[in-house]
Every structure is written in C-alpha cells, then in structure tokens.
Amino acid sequence: MQKRSRKPRQPQDVNQAAFAMVARSVESADAEIAPKFNRAEVLRFMRAMASKGGKKGGKNRWANVSAEERSKALSNAARARWSKEKEKE
After folding, report:
1. Residue of 10, 28, 30 whose CA lies nearest to 19
2. Which of 13, 20, 72, 80 lies at a 20 to 30 A Cα distance from 66?
3. Rounded distance, CA 23 to CA 28, Å?
4. What is the DSSP letter of 5?
C-alpha cells in the first residue's frame, strides 16, 4: 500500500496548475498587505464623500430636463404624496 503524501496533489493540466499557482501567490500577498483602517478614519472619509455629493445632486439632476418634463414629474410626485390616507395616531 502506498503512503499518502501530505502535500496537496499538483494538477496535471497546465492551466489548472497556473491557476493554483496564482491563487497561492495572491493569498500570501493579501495576507501581507491587508490595510488597517480604524473606525474614526472611515467615518470621517464617508462624511466628506456624502457632503460633496449631496450639495449639488438636485441641481444637476434637473439641469437637462425640460420644463414640461419637470412639471409632469413634480405633479406626479405631488399627486402620490397627497393621495395617501393620513395615518391615525
């Protein structure tokens, strides 16, 4: 009876062998270069990104819309808003 090898068996196909080699090299590279961010830095960055986008969103969205299309969209929104029954508290 043959003894089993402890090493994983290498694929016979050249493409599979290349894929396995790249996968092993990427695994070790990811472990070494994993960035470390603390929560405060992430929150500060996300707040800055949100404030940039929110200030000009509505103006840019309506800049290329004709007056007729704008009127139609806004009247549909108003109709939807006022057609809802008021919730009883």
Report:
1. 10
2. 80
3. 9
4. P
pTM of the predicted structure, to 2 decimals:
0.33
Residue in the block written with tokens 């695994």: 27
What residue spans define the domains of the chain? Answer: 12-54
The answer for residues whose C-beta is within 8 angstroms of residue 73's C-beta and 6 or more apart is 65
Length of the chain, please?
Answer: 89
Q: Residue 64 gets which letter from DSSP?
A: T
Q: What is the pLDDT of residues 40-64, one digit of tens each?
A: 888 998 888 887 766 667 777 788 8
